[in-house]
Design a protein that fits this description.
Pfam families: FBPase, FBPase_C. With about 350 residues, this protein is an alpha+beta fold. It has 8 helices and 17 strands. Bound molecules: 6-O-phosphono-alpha-D-fructofuranose. The site of 6-O-phosphono-alpha-D-fructofuranose has 10 residues, from helix 6. 6-O-phosphono-alpha-D-fructofuranose (P6P) binds next to helix 6.
């Protein structure tokens, strides 16, 4: 076989298992099962109106958000795919109030899977890229029926994380703690093929991603930082910046993984009772792991996201992630403000 032969996800995982002892057969099965489920989600998303799956489901989730039919379908696809394999002790999802146990009919394993089954789903009806985000933790020894508290581990405890982006092509982006890698879905073969190994995010950027309509609700350091960006080369940064905002985290993060940038969803007083919009356990932590493994950085504006001690399954955090030097700049900007 020539070295230019395409490397499938299966071959990649087997070779990773040989190279890194922590990647055992159950973790390899977990990743393959999640990837297979995401292929099914990609097919459902791709049908659009023809699949009768657009629009609202008529139900709400724990976040208080109206669920799209595809939110519910994607969640069910991931739960069913992960029920029988014997690799999981339990699942947690943005779409479910409480952790989901593995049915008694099946054996249980040592991993915990957390996911946002269809992030950015408000974009579904306008045909903008959406995605699935997942995070993998170890279940504490001796726990066979994990409750929410067993999921409350800091991001540094993740053994794997990934997302799929359902865009012009369907991509799986994966880290097992040894680099971040990109797989493209070969629709003819029906398998993910390695297309980028060990992605590196450019350390500097001229591109920021934020929902500017919230500007009046931000705290002072956030206002000051963005004013500098908007001042461009006439201001202290000495260079002009561009702005992009898809309002689909997976799409915005994938752009940043590909060409650099900084993604920001800060705290805002619009909903003062919440520390941010994005969820720590199945959005911020997995994205932070992926970005850090690609040479980027991810903070809350003050602290490293992966070192935040979780207190609730669906807790929210402010998110600043992407090109490490830009994340360092805005984080120092916030810390300097706090020191005054
Ligand atoms: P806004 C999608 O609902 C999401 O959770 C992320 O995917 C996205 O980055 C953010 O919210 C968009 O928020 O306030 O711009 O609609």
């Amino acid at each position: 076989m020539s070295e230019t032969s395409p490397i499938s996800l299966t071959r990649f995982l087997i070779e990773e298992q040989r190279a890194h002892q922590h990647l055992n057969a159950d973790l390899r099965l977990l990743i393959e099962v999640v990837a297979r489920a995401c292929k099914s989600i990609s097919i459902a998303v791709g049908k659009g109106d023809l699949g009768g799956v657009l629009g609202d489901a008529g139900t709400g989730n724990v976040q208080g958000e109206a669920q799209k039919k595809l939110d519910v379908l994607s969640n069910e696809i991931l739960l069913e795919a992960n029920a029988w394999g014997g690799h999981l002790a339990g699942c947690a999802s943005e779409e479910m109030d409480d952790p989901h146990p593995i049915p008694d009919a099946y054996p249980k394993g040592n991993f915990l899977l957390l996911f946002d089954p269809l992030d950015g789903s408000s974009n579904i009806d306008v045909n903008i890229s959406v995605g699935t985000i997942f995070s993998v933790l170890k279940c504490p020894d001796g726990v066979t029926n994990p409750s929410a508290e067993h999921f409350l581990q800091p991001g540094t405890m993740q053994v794997a994380a990934g997302y799929t982006v359902y865009g012009p092509s369907t991509l799986l982006v994966l880290t097992l703690g040894h680099g971040t890698h990109v797989f493209t879905l070969d629709r003819e073969l029906g398998s993910f093929t390695l297309t980028r190994r060990n992605v590196q995010i450019p350390p500097d950027t001229r591109e920021f991603a934020i929902n500017m309509s919230n500007q009046r609700h931000w705290e002072a350091p956030m206002q000051g930082y963005v004013e500098e960006l908007l001042a461009g080369k006439t201001g202290p940064r000495g260079k002009d910046f561009n702005m992009r905002w898809v309002a689909s985290m997976v799409a915005d993060v994938h752009r940043i993984l590909t060409r650099g940038g900084i993604f920001i969803y800060p705290w805002d007083k619009k909903d003062a009772g919440k520390p941010g919009k994005l969820r720590l356990m199945y959005e911020a932590n997995p994205m932070a792991f992926i970005v850090e493994q690609a040479g980027g950085a991810a903070t809350t504006g003050r602290d490293r996201i992966m070192e935040v001690g979780p207190t609730a399954l669906h807790q929210r955090v402010p998110v600043f992630l992407g090109s490490r030097n830009e994340v360092a700049y805005v984080t120092e900007f916030h810390r300097n403000h706090d020191r005054k």
